[in-house]
Amino acid sequence: GKTIDLELSGCDYKDHEEKYWIFQRDNLQRLFARKVKERIEEGEVRHLSVFALAPQPLLIELGCLLGDIVPTSVHQRHREPPTWRWQANQPAIVFETADPGNRPGATVALKLALSATINDERIHAALGPDVAIWSLTAENPHNDILRRAEDQSAFKVQLRQLLNRIKTVHGEDAIINVFPALPNSAAVEVGRVWMPKADLPMVVYDQNREAGGFIKTIEIRP
């Protein structure tokens, strides 16, 4: 098959600056439209295998762009052994979800933490005290956790259920503030699971050293 490269563009803005995210997202959207979407529409591309390395908000955006326009398999780069191939003989990830129930007036947060633990204090630091924190996490998060394709599929199923439940509980006008600490392939899948006609808007945060915490990066809306 052919290789299509979508390169992050060199940019003088730093990733703690709002303009960095505007620039990189715009760059990604333009590259995608030109290099991928056109080829799909012309019937040149019938299947995509995705090998993505980028900051998490841009991976989620890539997933949104991909959606389900063409059959797609998203691969994860493993650290040990260093390969993109799935590692079959591994224990399954034990997923855990938290449902804070109906908290009228609360800001809605969704913590997606598989590759590292995210303490609630870090979410409160970004959003304030009154936050309903929903979460999809793993029993033992670490940065090489996603080894099997089945776990990636299970993650998507759990996330789909959570997005539905959050909308049911918080209503049509809510916005979901997303705090990701995910393997790259899972971040792409977040964007692919999100459905523009059905789901609530998402504001994606990114852990930033310079800022010393989570910062708002991009908004994903229908």
Q: Order of strands across the widest beta sheet?
A: 3-5-4-6-7-8
* Span between termini: 32 Å
Strand/helix succession? HEHEEEHEHEHEE
For the CA atoms, what is the radius of gyration? 17 Å
| Strand tally | 8
Low-confidence stretches: none
Query: Structural class from helices and strands?
Result: alpha/beta
Helix and strand topology:
Layout: H1 18-41, E1 48-51, H2 56-66, E2 72-75, E3 95-98, E4 107-113, H3 120-127, E5 131-138, H4 149-170, E6 176-181, H5 184-193, E7 202-208, E8 213-220
Parallel strand pairs: 1-2, 4-5, 4-6, 6-7
Antiparallel strand pairs: 3-5, 7-8
Helix pairs in contact: 1-2, 2-5, 4-5
Structural notes for this entry:
By secondary structure, the chain is α/β, with parallel strands linked by helices. It contains five helices and eight strands. It has helices at 18-41, 56-66, 120-127, 149-170, 184-193, and strands at 48-51, 72-75, 95-98, 107-113, 131-138, 176-181, 202-208, 213-220. A six-stranded mixed beta sheet has the order 3-5-4-6-7-8, with helices on both faces. The longest helix is centred in the first third of the chain and has 24 residues, at 18-41. The radius of gyration is 17 Å and the shape is globular.
